[in-house]
Amino acid sequence: MRLLAIETSTEACSVAVLVDGALSERFEVAPRRHAELVLPWAEALLSEAGLRRADLDAIAVTRGPGAFTGVRLGISIAQGIALALDRPLLPVSTLAVLAMGGLRGAPAGEFVLAAIDARMGEVYAGAFARDGEALRAVAPEAVAAPDAVALPHTGSWLGVGTGFAAEDGALVRRFGDRLATVDAAALPRAADLARLAARSLAEGGGMAPERVEPAYLRDHVALTLAEQAAARERRG
């Protein structure tokens, strides 16, 4: 299996190439430089692996949630490559990718709450459980204030993602000792995207590129200044 994975939905930018189980990745926290980095990194990784674009079996991309511009950019680039090559596109939840990274090296059977700072007093949150070498969602993904996020199961949870630093660590205070560990600096990585996408492709996943759409979770991708002020007033 030969797979190109693109992740641009947060302030980090990463690209990975998976070739028959061997992974290579470029990763950098590079706000506002995603468009500059993605294609050169992809070409460099393919060259290092001795591949051309035409040798790829599929393209993978995070579909969101995350920064609106970053999510749109990643999907647009991935769609363009997949359409040009007539290859399937594998969209994967950004929160699932984040959770996958959090579970690497963790004890078997762990639950993980992945959360990304969504600004305006909210977080994007998704709850997952380890399912063999893959993940299983145990609650719908949502955007909510930290005090509205719930853990659907008892037991020990891992916390991963910038959402745990949002609002002065409100999620950490909310769940207290239910969190075995917290990594509030973690960001999604293309290598974890590639792992999840490869499993999906092996199970028959993949979509026509033009059918892939972002998962913003918010109904409105932008708020007016008046709406932002009203939201702040509601939060007190």
TrEMBL record:
GO terms for cellular component: cytosol. Belongs to the KAE1 / TsaD family. TsaB subfamily. Transmembrane segments: none annotated. Keywords: Cytoplasm, Transferase, tRNA processing. Gene3D superfamilies: 3.30.420.40. Coiled coil: none annotated. It comes from Luteimonas granuli. One of its GO terms (molecular function) is transferase activity. It comes from the Bacteria. SUPFAM superfamilies: Actin-like ATPase domain. This is tRNA threonylcarbamoyladenosine biosynthesis protein TsaB. The keyword Coiled coil does not apply. GO terms for biological process: tRNA threonylcarbamoyladenosine modification. InterPro entries: ATPase_NBD, Gcp-like_dom, T6A_TsaB. Pfam families: TsaD. Residues 28-222 form the Gcp-like domain. It is found in: Cytoplasm.
